[in-house]
Amino acid sequence: MAHDKAGKTMEGDNMRAELASPIFRLNTLARHLGVSCSLSPPSPMESQFPNQAIYPSPTAGFSGGSVFANVVQAPEDPILGVTVAYNKDPSRMKVNLGVGAYRTEEGKPLVLNVVRRAEQMLVNNPSRVKEYLPITGLADFNKLSAKLIFGADSPAIQENRVVTVQCLSGTGSLRVGGEFLAKHYHERTIYIPQPTWGNHTKVFMLAGLSVKTYRYYDPTTRGLNFKGLLEDLSMAPSGAIVLLHACAHNPTGVDPTVGQWEQMRLLIRSKGLLPFFDSAYQGFASGSLDADAQSVRMFAADGGECLTAQSYAKNMGLYGERVGALSIVCKYADVAVRVESQLKLVIRPMYSNPPIHGASIVATILKDKEMYYEWTVELKAMANRIINMRQQLFDALRARGTPGDWTHIIKQIGMFTFTGLNKEQVAFMTQEYHVYLTSDGRISMAGLNSKTVPHLADAIHAAVTRIK
Ligand code: PLA
């Protein structure tokens, strides 16, 4: 007789299975009621457990159609779908300028030296284990992330008014912040800039907020529509949440000046609006971590409240590690304690607790003076390479005599150039030149290199001269 590990007989298992089967139970019931009935499945399907039959049913493998037959094909994501299309293209001249992912001059993804070094240290440390992190993430990482964005001497941090929770990169931080606000904040409307990163609307809608826009970009000047921005924010209902890109606005590459930020702060504070900063590019705009955090620090310094979503995807090149943080600056320390307790209730049923590896890399780098310095040097090199690509593309278009004013390529900030090319021109460039970019005409400058600049310039030149 066959025995399993626990020493039970397999025969006994089969018998138990038979006793538990619905047919056995129905036949038993019929016998008890005194009716003559002998049920057997119409076409019993022998499963791996003999004596257990499966009735034909909508979810059974051998009958009927799929219960998901009515699911319609969804379109690809407007940004990540560009990479999907690029990967399918067999052309050798293809260039992917869709997603904002940094590439080297050789067109390769980059893992920073300092990140490799931190990873080595982590791997070589035998005391490191793989236990769950707390719901709020790695404590060191949270403290250091708050310091990075608000500044080492931030009064809000010193007064224990800042709650920071580790989240799944920038997107996860925005989503957790959004869900917290939908549950605990009285005004559930969030104003996002027009245009903005395409995912903002979906993240906040699914978090339970109502999404409205404020004017941000003026296509005629290819600059900030500051008048429109102030008008729209002053019309927003008191208490409304306002999403602000901390720096390197995506997709436009247009940021307010310090003076304009100050005017925005005065308006936002006077109207009791709640600022929610998205900081996905700290250090990537100017090359300086402090300069790129200035907008956030101006708001944190006035003693008022705000939220900040940080991402280490771009500035530390940790894209797929999904490392980020949500900070909520409160007016009082006791409020911050209660806010943290509620953030835990948002996170626990969503993903329980965040992953350990990427946050450990960040914490290792941020807490070591020398590694931190090495990071800033590598970060500046990435920012400079992008600035250099702007100049090269601008020069290449000028050399071709491409119609139009292309100075915005060198004026815009951060990872992207918002070219002003229309949908048809973009489609033409993809079809004829195998240059991939988002349909709004946004180009990821970080994906360019000296070898691909002439090809892109040819594509743009042909697009603007042939398609109006
Ligand atoms: N916020 C802004 C403004 C972003 O541009 C991005 C990423 C994120 C948040 C989220 O980044 P994270 O979750 O990876 O930290 N935007 C990219 C990628 C670079 C993307 O769309 O997911 C972009 O190409 O626009």
From TrEMBL:
GO molecular function per UniProt: L-aspartate:2-oxoglutarate aminotransferase activity; pyridoxal phosphate binding
Entry keyword annotation includes Transferase: yes
Record key words, sorted: Aminotransferase, Pyridoxal phosphate, Transferase
Record-annotated Aminotransferase class I/classII large domain positions: 93-460
One GO cellular component term: mitochondrion
Tagged with keyword NADP: no
Cofactor: pyridoxal 5'-phosphate
Residues in the signal sequence: none
Catalyzed reaction equations: L-aspartate + 2-oxoglutarate = oxaloacetate + L-glutamate
EC numbers for this chain: 2.6.1.1
Entries under InterPro entries matching the protein: Aminotransferase_I/II_large, Asp_trans, NHTrfase_class1_PyrdxlP-BS, PyrdxlP-dep_Trfase, PyrdxlP-dep_Trfase_major, PyrdxlP-dep_Trfase_small
Segments passing through the bilayer: none
GO annotation (BP), single: amino acid metabolic process
Anything else known: In eukaryotes there are cytoplasmic, mitochondrial and chloroplastic isozymes.
Family from the record: Belongs to the class-I pyridoxal-phosphate-dependent aminotransferase family.
Quaternary assembly: Homodimer.
Protein known as: Aspartate aminotransferase
Source organism of this protein record: Canna indica (Indian-shot)
Lineage of the species this protein comes from: Eukaryota, Viridiplantae, Streptophyta, Embryophyta, Tracheophyta
